């Protein structure tokens, strides 16, 4: 219902903009707490006693029965009741990367909550790779699910399990799963060493599947029918192979993975300099991640990754001769296709990570070969990120926070089944598939506030209508929120630039 092909961005004229005055400073601590809390509203499975989103209850308790295996848990990706493995793994990677890079900026309580959010994802991902030569990539038939407007607690739609067995390919999902487990192993290393080791061991196993059986998971006909058009792999699986190997290199420091990302850079497209980053395309994030070893460790054999990362950074600076990014009149990064705030949050995350890498080694950024864009300080990148954060939290032409529950003016009618239908406590009787249409078509605000959810966001003209039916703008997703956790942690610790 909401997945789109995000094509490579063509060159755009950069819209020069003047930001409106902010009125008052944002409470980044409150926003961080809420951004993490959101994930509790997306939980599937048996909810623990400390569940804070109390209007949610257990759901999907029979997931995996047709394979006689336990596939309960994990996250619903957005406003539906399907568990898509590809974006769930990416979400988990980004939550883990948020802790790896910015965990020290988080208050202890929110660090614990972040680790709990990661573990809800990794516990499920471990189940998906628990059987030899098999990976489970999805639970739920999206076509059937999307024809219902039904609480997850009431689900009576088919909980179809999509599994891929060797030698059928799944390099993208397996590679992203490897990245998620490896990144999470770093996040848990000092908190739960035994769990960290389990994550790393299974990350290696997932990567071996990805590398041994190369190809996209949607090359498999039975999976294609379920995953497409929602989470099809349009842009290739090669980036996930490098992404998984890069995270394993960081988690293990082993030369085998270093040699992999060195030796396969050209063959797997790392030098294509693709300025994309999201659940489908990892290129820009891969380049930033790998560049750390060049910037901080003089690993010059990886210089091509750093060059691509710098090119990406320069493409985001409006004054740069290589700028490729369109901004709305109000200053929001904009890419066509819907669910635009996923770009704003993920790009902001990369800006801050790269700025930190530069700062630690007292390096600067040069765009366009000199002039006024020579020796740009890391602060220049951080200012772009801060502009995106403040826009999302309400410093925009609409004066609206695009995070639900933050400030006094936020979307009330988000495209989200559980939020828009009455809770089990308020309406314990079963609400059937089509009976939910009454609530979907209602103009009333959602009865359950999905605190912390960041919606798809406004269009290129900064306009936003609070319309449940307009899923491109009003639907939240886990992969919009995940990178924002790290971004908010940074600005909580560094509010003034």
From TrEMBL:
GO molecular function, one term: cellulase activity
Superkingdom, natural source: Eukaryota
Active-site residue list: 415, 466, 475
GO annotation terms (biological process): cellulose catabolic process
Enzyme class: hydrolase
Entry EC no(s): 3.2.1.4
Organism, scientific name: Senna tora
Reaction it catalyzes: Endohydrolysis of (1->4)-beta-D-glucosidic linkages in cellulose, lichenin and cereal beta-D-glucans
Positions of the Glycoside hydrolase family domain: 28-488
Entry keywords, A to Z: Carbohydrate metabolism, Cellulose degradation, Glycosidase, Hydrolase, Polysaccharide degradation, Signal
Name the UniProt record assigns to this protein: Endoglucanase
InterPro entries: 6-hairpin_glycosidase_sf (IPR008928), 6hp_glycosidase-like_sf (IPR012341), Glyco_hydro_9 (IPR001701), Glyco_hydro_9_Asp/Glu_AS (IPR033126), Glyco_hydro_9_His_AS (IPR018221)
Signal sequence range: 1-25
The keyword Flavoprotein is assigned to this record: no
